[in-house]
Amino acid sequence: MTLGCQMNMSDSERVASVLDAAGCEKVDTEEEANFIGILACSVRQKAIDKVYSRISKWNKWKNKKNLVTFISGCMLPDDKEKFLKLFDIVFTMPELPQLPRMLGEYGISNPLSLIAQPQSPVDEIKLFWKVKPKYDSTFEAFVPIQNGCNKFCTYCAVPYTRGREISRPSEEILDEVRILVHKGYKTITLLGQNVNSYGLDKNGEEMSFPELLEKVGQIGEETDHEFWVYFTSPHPRDMTTDIFHIIAKYRCLGKQIHFPLQSGDEKVLIKMNRKHSLAKYRESMVALREILPQATVFTDIIVGFTDETEEQFENTRKVMEEFKYNMAYIAMYSPRPGAASYSWEDSIAMEEKKRRYAVLSEELAKHTYAYNQSLIGKTLKVLVREHDRKDGYLSGHTEGKLVIRFKSSDENLIGQIIEVKVTEAAKFSLEGERIAVKSLQ
């Protein structure tokens, strides 16, 4: 079971690889398993609540059968301490190469598969990155480029769960990208807590994030294979216009930017310790729109942060109206142990947080609907991902990561990039009809 962000999803692919090497076989249901676990996320309380719910159920099963449980992922020290009493095996993601030894203690695998003991946290994460992932998909892949965070936003626990920023060697990243392209993958997402601070921890001994993007773009130019490369998440403080120019230059670099706002009020940004001003964010957004007018823009926003006034909340709504995002992941603030704001009074009532959430959701929907309506009649390239909930339809996403469905039952299209003409638009999705291949000739 994987909880949390795309980084945890990527981590789960490396966990699967280690378990395969240890001789474990995947089963279809939890009830069939003799070894079961969770990649947790201490960043959100709801995710931690799910952990306790699952382990309570699993530990009851131990009365009826042999069962070994494990937990890893993003864990705060306090959470990890509690998990040690509930799970059989508790390990951090950088400790993954040592998992075979831990499994061997329970007779699950051969402890001789143990990788050499690392000497430091940097050594640990380097060994972790060398574990070849078992990709969950045959056409979509995550490639970690960086781990940890040095920003210390007051609401965030990531620096305490992931540690300080460490950049993965660019040679390893580019090799993994080349392999994925050679295998025919259609989307590749470069992952990190702060991807655009990539290389800053290497004191000039490693390329910068723009330089890394340029190299990835060049890989795309070396092949006729069509694919899209994305990245998440960048930080406004480290966002530079050369990133936008590089994305515009290379066809394989997806024209979609995830650009977290968190708040549209200057004082709240300071209290959040975001280390950038609204003016800096706006400057980047103006440049983005000028250099990449076709790009869609997604963002993250927190409502109800400690002592957020109605006026400060309204400033966020106004900024949403100004930037007209294509998607916003809106979260109601909840204090997390380890984060600086945990010791502050959570002064905004839940009912008020819900109201503000609804207001921003309505603001978002107004702009997404207008944008989606403007696409009616246009033909877009679409990566087909799965069967849609509507019978007889498949769904996927555009290069800009907009969800679209079209009438078809041809499963062979899943994992392919095709062309779809938009015929209908809703607030958060599109509908269209497939353009027949013969009509493109």
From TrEMBL:
Every TRAM domain range? 373-436
Against CDD domains, the record matches this protein to: Radical_SAM
Gene Ontology molecular functions: 4 iron, 4 sulfur cluster binding; metal ion binding; tRNA-2-methylthio-N(6)-dimethylallyladenosine(37) synthase activity
**Summary of the function given for this chain in its UniProt record:** Catalyzes the methylthiolation of N6-(dimethylallyl)adenosine (i(6)A), leading to the formation of 2-methylthio-N6-(dimethylallyl)adenosine (ms(2)i(6)A) at position 37 in tRNAs that read codons beginning with uridine.
Q: Name it.
A: tRNA-2-methylthio-N(6)-dimethylallyladenosine synthase
Keyword S-adenosyl-L-methionine: yes or no? Answer: yes
The EC code for this enzyme is 2.8.4.3
Q: Which domain of life is it from?
A: Bacteria
- Residue spans making up a coiled coil are none
Quote the cellular component terms of the Gene Ontology held in the record. Answer: cytosol
Is Metal-binding set as a keyword in this record? Answer: yes
Q: Which PROSITE patterns match?
A: MTTASE_N, MTTASE_RADICAL, RADICAL_SAM, TRAM
Top-level EC class: transferase
UniProt keywords (A-Z) are: 4Fe-4S, Cytoplasm, Iron, Iron-sulfur, Metal-binding, S-adenosyl-L-methionine, Transferase
InterPro entries noted in UniProt: Elp3/MiaA/NifB-like_rSAM, Methylthiotransferase, Methylthiotransferase_CS, Methylthiotransferase_N, Methylthiotransferase_N_sf, rSAM, rSAM_horseshoe, rSAM_sf
Q: Extract the SMART domains matched here.
A: Elp3
Residue ranges of domain MTTase N-terminal in the record: 1-108
Q: Which Gene3D superfamilies match?
A: Methylthiotransferase, N-terminal domain (3.40.50.12160), tm_1862 like domain (3.80.30.20)
Q: In what residue span(s) does the Radical SAM core domain sit?
A: 135-370
Which cofactor(s) does the record list? [4Fe-4S] cluster
